[in-house]
Amino acid sequence: MVRFMSDDDERRPGHHHQTARPTQAVVLAGGQGSRLRPYTDDRPKPMVEIPGTGTPIIGHQLAWLAAEGVTDAVVSCGHLAAVLQDWLEAAELPLRVRTVVEKEPLGRGGGLKFAAARLPEPDQPWYATNGDIWTRFSLRDMADFHDERGATATLALARPRIPWGAVETNEFGHVLDFIESPPSPYLINAGVYVFSAAFTALLPDRGDHERTTFPRLARERRLAGFPLPQGAYWRAIDTAKDLTEAAKELAAGPPPHGHGPFDTTPVPHA
């Protein structure tokens, strides 16, 4: 039976899975979401509903994780934690969910480590996702990519579209074309991860792992980047405009090639 568990519940005995594909995940859901006000005045950012769905962002995330084979999730709460916990307790969830609440801010790396301590199988790999990401792609493929490269950590990579129109010129300064919302020339961290069991011990107790742990792993060639596959959907919900755009994309159905919220052109692997 799937049920919600608070951090006060006894730890559930784990069943060891001899597979590279994780069945457990951490969702970082403690942000204040100040740029989403007034939506976040009375609820944490992951509890903001995508217009037209009747479901908060966290609901979409948990459904996606469950569909990708995750059976246990730890949700790290902070801002207005009780609102999120109440929703989780009342919802019909497709997987087991436990919440943890930071007594004081630990930073993103410290928050990950704090939440990972409550995973049911500490000696097995795990997924992690930021609580404001709405996406759909194969986590199983990402886990296989991670395993094939022998990585300690793998992050999903997106190529977002620039919100402004671009102007193309030639070497003489003549304007050749206007391009509406072109894809960025840079890849970004998409906020979804696969971590090996050993990664947890490398996280700082406090601070940001992207300034400490990730650079160290990159120097040691133990950090991999998984380009989101062509046709995958990805959007970070940061502002009210993002909510509006997400609702439009939902109403329009799956975006045609090249017209989604980010470019999905495959990136050659090193």
From TrEMBL:
Residues 1-12 have a biased composition (Basic and acidic residues). It holds the Pfam family NTP_transferase. InterPro entries: Mannose-1P_guanyltransferase, NTP_transferase_dom, Nucleotide-diphossugar_trans. Residues 25-251 form the Nucleotidyl transferase domain. Residues 1-24, 250-270 are annotated as: Disordered. It comes from the Bacteria. This is Nucleotidyltransferase family protein.
